[in-house]
Fold this protein.
Amino acid sequence: MGQGELRGVVALDGPSGTGKSTVARRLAATLRSGYLDTGAMYRAITLAVLRDGVDPADGAAVLRVAEQAELHIGTDPNHADVRLAGEDVAAEIRGRKVTLAVSAVSAVPRVRELLVARQRQLISEARARIGGIVVEGRDIGTVVVPDAGLKVYLTASADARASRRTKQDSREGRTSTVDATLADVERRDRLDSTRAASPLRPAVDAVEIDTTDLDIRAVLDRLLDIVRDRGLRGTAARSAGR
Ligand code: DC
């Protein structure tokens, strides 16, 4: 496989509903780089926990499930590939049951260690294969890849995030109301930013972008400018001969 146009890692962090996933996937597709959705990894482990009938608040039991789960996650921005023991769970991990339990699972420090090690491995494989990768999550710039070439932290008002989440749910065939989603969003923000292990916060050197009044295209254009200005965009032809 040839090299893409991104050199190194773009770390994209922030709470849900900021447009993070869409922007990350499109940025990776535009630059023909890899793409890693680390939230999908926490969600898949959460699904395994729920399927095993384990209490998400029981850290030791959750860790055992995480250690045994046969989790596969792809890094192609054009194809969401999340599997548990070979079964495609890409849609099921977006459901409400998983969304409600994922903060408890992702607060278990040893589960984070396990997944962070997997994430670093996937990142280095993608870099070796195609030169660069866009990684999205909550702790990418602070913990997973603290030396990323570009760290971005997306924010947006809670109302804007809840309304985007509701629209996304309806597009993907789930029913929800803005009020219920707003309550979920605020609850998850609180849990994710107050947990002891790797709480959600911007890296000191992250570029912060408030997306409340910006559409996806505007955010994407801004990121492409920064990637170019930082010299992280190489041409595929040049790097292929390296
Ligand atoms: O991005 P998302 O909504 O799919 O993430 C699901 C949950 O996983 C979110 O509530 C916080 C957690 N998460 C995390 O703790 N660290 C990450 N790097 C990614 C997600």
Q: What stands out?
A: Strands lie at 8-13, 34-37, 71-73, 82-84, 87-88, 132-137, 150-155, 207-210. Residues 237-242 have pLDDT under 50 and may be disordered.
